[in-house]
Amino acid sequence: MSTTTPATRSQVKRIALPAIVSVVAVFGSIRATEGQADRRPADWLLVVLVLIGSVSLYWLDTRPVPVIWTITLATLIYMLREYGYGPVIFSFVIAVFATIRAGHRAAGWAAIAALYTGHVLGRLVLGTNDQNVYQVLLVGTCFLVLGFLAELFRAHRERVAAADKTRREAELRRAGEERLRIAQELHDVVAHHISLINVQASTALHLVDRQPEQAGPALSAIKEASKEALVELRSIVGILRQTDESAPRQPVAGLERLEHLISGTSRAGLEVHTIVHGDPRPLPTGLDRAAFRIIQESLTNIVRHAKATAATVRIQYGEETLVLQVDDNGESLTGPPREGNGIIGMRERATALGGTLTASRTPTGGLRVVAHLPLEPRTT
Predict the structure, then answer these.
(1) What is the pTM of this model?
(2) How far apart are CA 14 and CA 191, in angstroms?
(3) Directed axis angle between helix 133-210 and helix 89-101, to 10°?
(4) Residues 6+ apart with CB under 8 A from 31
(5) What is the DSSP string of 38-56?
(6) Which residues of 181-209 are buried (b: 16+ CB within 10 A; e: fewer)?
(7) According to DSSP H, which parts of the chain are helical?
(8) What would the pLDDT profile of 297-349 be if each residue is shown by its tens digit?
(9) What is the DSSP letter of 319?
């Protein structure tokens, strides 16, 4: 079993680059010098200058600016000593690319200019300039191409990094939205079923001493509500445990379960009437789930907060809009209703779909929740 760590692999790479360049540059420069009779023969200084440049590459990732200037100086001395042209330039090219890529553009271009002008002016001062104007311009052009290639490499790397950053931000945003959606699901499921259990428990406690034979239905309703809560909670928790993103599982919550919801609410003592207008049709998953949760939360608020005995759920399927309206016959109150977390959560669901949700008083003083949710156009 391999015990190589990322840090070890990184250290091996740092050592491998200068080691390979050292071998190639030293032997290549010696061979190049031997093949160029008009150049200075190879000696110990040639080996030292080549090794200074190649070994400095070890610190290129951590100290790019000092490294490139060290390599530039060693390469310039090598060239002014008139050793043979050859792979000694490899270290300089690598350093230019790495320095500009790391964002030290000024240092990279300054090193290019220093090596080029130092070589031209140095040969003039030393009286060893045997190059004509065209050769000088050709060398300058090669150095410019080197700088521009390094800049292209840097720009490409920055674009890739920017794309990765955008992708990570998008993933984090989607994860945040998914956490918010799951939190809303948990709130709706827990609040609804716990409210029903609380009401039925109160009823059972009231009846257990006075009319114990009538406490059975209330206890059965508690059992059914708790079972339903556990089923939905397992479904939601199952989403958190998903590892196969290609086949996501969603909690089963849509208007097809409306009868079941109303049946459970009715057992809590709230008489619920349902009125459907228009032509019912399948809805997109997100819209279907939001519509169900809005009705569920509205009924939960009635059970928990309104002293009501009856509620009416109206669903209207329009050409472009699904309209939900939930009224109760609670106490005759005046003024706008207090908006707690339930109404705020319902409004967020509607807004997320491009719709609206309002909470107001009915003519008799009860609570009225109205949601307008946009529908997808019919296909003909």
Answers:
(1) 0.49
(2) 59
(3) 40
(4) 86
(5) TSPPP-HHHHHHHHHHHHG
(6) beebbebbbebbbebbbebbeebbeebee
(7) 6-34, 44-55, 64-80, 89-101, 105-126, 133-210, 215-240, 258-267, 285-305, 341-352
(8) 888 888 777 778 889 999 999 888 999 999 998 776 666 677 777 788 888 88
(9) S
